[in-house]
Amino acid sequence: MAHHVGSGQPPLRGLERRGGFGGSDSDGRVAVGFARLEGDPIHWRGINVNGGKNPAHPASFPQKGKTTGIAYVDGTLYATINLQDGPWPEVNHALAWSADQGATWTKADWLFPRGASGLQPARFLSFGRDYTGVPAALAGYVYLCGTKPQGGRGHGESLYLIRVPRNKLRERSAYEFFQGLGPAGLPSWTPESGLAKAVFTDRKGVRPGGLVYDPGIQRFLLTCYHVGPGQLGVFEAPAPWGPWTTVSYEESWGQMGAEGEGLSCEFRRSG
Asked: Rounded distance, CA 120 to CA 193, Å?
């Protein structure tokens, strides 16, 4: 799985449970590694920045960890980390950050805890480079979406929305959870994750969705698997809490069917 970071620097990628560029499942393999791409689409090279085979810096997460979300905000990289410290979905999640382009990482000393009511933040909402281009109504905050575990369903059937002031990402007490729309149609927020209301629901199930804002059409685009790698839905809405309209709903996208799990398929802004 890979994540493009709009930082103004060469694209950085998070590579999960592989050996990075030049490595393999057995050669240079780490739980989470970060690499940089240089060059153009025809003439390019990959450089293992943190972890992987012959990295510039040793892996910050060599044995356990998995990331599905990465964002560049005001000169710092942030990533959500599934700590893989229990049987799925009973795992804790943490926030990590890098102030040196992914070379070294610091993990927060607090958690998004496991448990039936625990909300597992997974993906950052994607706006412009260095988290610019956030619409005025949403400005000043960084947004994430995630799921709550639901027994054997794993990720369950709903997505939830989280926000945090962009200058307080490292403070757990600053995080708020979408609690619904008030009488005037404005969103309300709560510091209690157990009171969070879903912003998107699919009774067939959800994987953590990829959410991006397209300024050209002034709409939010959501790509979300309803479990299998061919079971992909594409949706659009005027706000990250909906209401959502279905663009496409596939059961065998790419002829991949329902066997296994769909992980990541999302739109990305390049500028």
From this structure: 10
Task: Give the H or E element holding residue 32.
Answer: strand 32-39
List, for residues 29-63, the tens digit of each pLDDT value: 999 999 999 999 899 999 999 999 999 999 999 99
Are residues 33 and 18 in contact, defined by beta-carbon separation less than 8 angstroms? yes
DSSP state letter for 152: G
Contact between 79 and 97 (Cβ < 8 Å): yes
Phi, psi of 193 (to 5 degrees): -65, -30
Rounded distance between C-alpha atoms, residue 48 and residue 36, angstroms = 6
Half-sphere exposure of 26 (CA within 13 A, CB side): 0
Instruction: List Cβ neighbours of 193 (8 Å cut-off, separation of 6 or more).
Output: 112, 117, 118, 119, 177
Report how far residue 266's alpha carbon sits from residue 271's, in angstroms, rounded to the nearest whole number. 16
Which residues partner with 248 through β-bridges?
Answer: 234
Judged by DSSP in three states, 44 sits in: strand
Q: Answer for the pair 37, 46: CB distance below 8 angstroms, yes or no.
A: yes
Mean pLDDT (whole number) for 238-245:
97
d(CA 94, CA 250): 32
Residue 195 in 3-state DSSP?
A: helix
The whole-angstrom separation of Cα 70 and Cα 60 is 15
Non-local (6+) Cβ contacts of 236 within 8 A are: 219, 220, 221, 222, 244, 245, 247
At residue 169, φ and ψ (nearest 5 deg) are -60, -30
Residue 5 scores a pLDDT above 90: no
